[in-house]
Amino acid sequence: MQGVQIVLFLVAVATVVATFAERVSVPAPSLLVVAGLIVGLFPIAGRIHVTPELVSLVVLPPLLYAAGEELSWRELKRLWRPVTLLAVGLVLVSAAAVGFVTAMLTPLSPALGFVLGAVLASTDPVAVTALGRRLALPPRLQTLVQAESLFNDATSLILFRIATAAAVAGGAVGWTGVAVDFVRLAGGGVLAGAVVAAGVGWVRRRTEDPIVESVIALIVPYLAYVSAEAVHASGVTAVIVAAVILGIRQHELTNPGTRLQLSAVYGTLIFLLESVVFSLIGLQLPGQIRDLSAAEQSWAPAVLAIALTLVVVRVAWMLPLAAFQQWRSGGRLRPSWQVPAVVSWAGARGVVPLAAALSIPLTTASGLPLPHRSLLMVLATGVIVVSLIAQGFTLAPLVRLSGLAVSPDHTQAEYVRARRRLTEIAAGYIEQIEDLEAAPPAVLAHVRRSLQAQMDLDQESEDLTGAYGRMRRDVLAVQSDALTRMYADGEIGPETHRRLQRHFDRQDQRFTDP
């Protein structure tokens, strides 16, 4: 099959899989990996060669950007300590543990084993976000898992670059060199992402053309990534920083119509990219296995042992962290297994480790082929597949068993309370306008009636773009600002904030002048 045919086939498969996943309540990424793995076993699939540029430059930036934009800044500020411990400390420990196990069970040298550890040390924000969409976790726990997966990518990829340089050069890297490289890669990535976010924010404040806004939104992740890589900094870090900054400022940079359009455009793009990349993860594994030499055929036990090592290390890291949090609370928090278990099992691997594995050099510094590179690729891809399948299919049942999932009734009740509160705020605003005699009484009466009817205008036949429409847009703006304050003050969670913001954006479009 040719490349274009393969991509179209994967998108078609993904559409069917996504529909099936909706019915059986299974995360689509896990089913896509299984589907790709099955297709890869048939000769019709041919040999699948995925280039590093395809994943790291084309696929990865927009997926990271979308995950970063969804991050709750309010919750992140409260959780920066555990996020830091997970995103830095756990990555280093996981890389060392995987390197040790790999060197014990495979022909790989300790240096190459540590390269594999650096590849697999981080959880994947794309996979974690995709797997977590159905879980209905509490906002704080969802932010912890998602923020860890975003920021530990930067740590692991920086560690991967350093480990790869040492393995390819055939020598050790001094601690001074490691510290300098880390500061250059991480600090440069943060600076590049902040500069891109500032420039994009300046441009977006000065345009209201939805098409231009869509184009800007599509190129931002690529611009951040390429800008950072051009100065030898971390492109992944730059994309994440730009996404978080622009996500915080999204409300002030865009109007309702643009937000709705961007949501549709990005939703389509993310579906297509996730469809291709998760299918490719499973699709390329059979071909990689066929490339192994006779001495490398005992890869399966090593894959299972490495996958188990990652889980065990993660559990061993989470238990004392949870105990420390309980101690810091002064006994207000009761010891429990639920949060450590869910956070430990939510550490799926996916697109970012795949991008790192594909970028492993083919040769050493002397020009000789890198020893056992085929085995490195099989081990990395195999662990990713095992992680997405095992943890993807069982994470939702674990969340239900733990009792941590927010019930639909609770979410709906919060939504109703917030909507009622915003309706009361809008009614107060109408009273102020009425006291000032700043609008015709008939218009105010009409707006008041529509508010009492829960703003349902589907059956309305009035002119929505005249004085009534302008008044309704003013009311919606007041409610939207109040919604932002309610979210910032912690009165409502991210899901309720997103639902109501989309509702107001759609309503605003009904009153926009053509």
Automatic annotation (TrEMBL):
It comes from the Bacteria. GO terms for biological process: regulation of intracellular pH; sodium ion import across plasma membrane. InterPro entries: Cation/H_exchanger_CPA1, Cation/H_exchanger_CPA1_bac, Cation/H_exchanger_TM. It holds the Pfam family Na_H_Exchanger. It comes from Planotetraspora kaengkrachanensis. GO terms for molecular function: potassium:proton antiporter activity; sodium:proton antiporter activity. PANTHER family: SODIUM/HYDROGEN EXCHANGER, SODIUM_HYDROGEN EXCHANGER 7. Coiled coil: none annotated. It is a multi-pass membrane protein. It is found in: Cell membrane. The chain crosses the membrane at residues 31-50, 83-105, 111-132, 158-176, 182-203, 215-248, 260-281, 302-322, 342-363, 375-399. This is Na+/H+ antiporter. GO terms for cellular component: plasma membrane. Na(+)/H(+) antiporter that extrudes sodium in exchange for external protons. Keywords: Antiport, Cell membrane, Ion transport, Membrane, Sodium, Sodium transport, Transmembrane, Transmembrane helix, Transport. Residues 12-400 form the Cation/H+ exchanger transmembrane domain. Belongs to the monovalent cation:proton antiporter 1 (CPA1) transporter (TC 2.A.36) family.
